[in-house]
Design goal:
Blueprint lengths: L1 H17 L5 E3 L6 E3 H6 L15 H8 L6 E3 L17 H12 L5 E8 L2 E8 L10 H17 L3 E7 L7 H20 L4 E9 L1 H4 L8 E4 L10 H8 L10 H6 L5 E2 L2 H15 L1
Parallel strand pairs: 5-6, 6-7, 7-8, 8-9
Antiparallel strand pairs: 1-2, 3-4, 4-5
Helix pairs in contact: 5-6
Length: 278
């Protein structure tokens, strides 16, 4: 097999020298070198090991919403720096960088549309915007998704991708946990369904509030889901944690996740669930 390893190594060298770097990407799961165009056609899922690459909010909208039915909401809401927070990097500078990176004003893309013909209100978190952290604007936009669903008497779907609360906004960020939870309680009183989609990662204050308050919890394979990180928990309880701790498959075994749906099956899975819940 030595000749095969050398040949494979030679191919890798050839790619690096003679091919534009942005055409190829290494899979974080199996380390295979993937052609970006084919990866995009496969919804950014590795066709070798099934690893789900992280994608932006707009991608989830394209995956979930029927073509031509999407109407964006609250596009003018913009994160500010109410506490004048400053550490090694000023918070306002981080916001400017995040806006340039994502082309949006905040870490949540929200709107209305149809999924397999079913009207809904949809909110999608974008991890590229300061780690998907939940600031006051993000929490407000999520709450408004539920309020819109209440107004239109439609289901609500939230796609979570977050490292947790945004520390640069302090208590104003933590207040969003209560704000979004109250809106979900109103949804339940009205008998309207809320489907929560958990992607990699869904952590911290997002997990401790709206992300785990759905009528049904759907996760992408291998998604990291929890509150505190594994290292913090291990050092706190001074015990070794089981294999796969905080991954979607482990949480499904323990009853925290209802369905694990690969990205290609995500829209169909949500559609079936919404049709039953209605």
């Amino acid at each position: 097999m030595e000749w095969f390893r050398k040949a494979k190594s030679g191919i890798g060298t050839l790619i690096k020298k003679d091919t534009p770097v942005d055409l190829w990407i290494k899979c974080e799961g199996c380390k295979e070198v993937l052609y970006r165009k084919e990866l995009a056609e496969n919804l950014h899922v590795c066709n070798h090991c099934g690893h789900h690459f992280r994608i932006g909010a707009a991608e989830y909208v394209r995956i979930l919403v029927d073509e031509g039915s999407w109407t964006a909401m609250d596009t003018g809401l913009r994160s500010t720096d109410p506490l004048k927070f400053s550490a090694k990097k000023k918070y306002k500078d981080s916001l400017v960088e995040a806006e340039k990176k994502t082309g949006t004003n905040s870490g949540v893309l929200s709107g209305t549309g149809k999924l397999d013909g079913i009207p809904l209100a949809l909110g999608v978190m974008d991890f590229r915007f300061i780690g998907g952290s939940m600031g006051s604007v993000e929490g407000e936009k999520i709450a408004r998704v539920f309020r819109r669903a209440l107004k239109d008497k439609t289901p609500a779907v939230i796609v979570s991708a977050s490292g947790g609360a945004r520390m640069q906004e302090g208590i104003l960020s933590l207040m969003q946990m209560a704000s979004t939870s109250v809106a979900i309680a109103q949804m339940r009183e009205a008998g309207l369904p809320f489907v929560s989609i958990l992607t990699n990662p869904t952590m911290g204050g997002v997990t401790a509030s709206f992300a785990m308050l759905g009528d049904v919890h759907i996760s992408e394979p291998g998604a990291l889901i929890g509150f505190a990180g594994e290292r913090v928990i291990r050092e706190t309880i001074r015990q070794q944690l089981p294999p796969g701790f905080q991954r979607a498959e482990f949480l499904m075994e323990k009853g925290f996740v209802d369905v694990i749906a690969p990205r290609k099956e995500l829209k169909g899975t949500v559609g079936k669930i919404l049709s039953h819940l209605r």
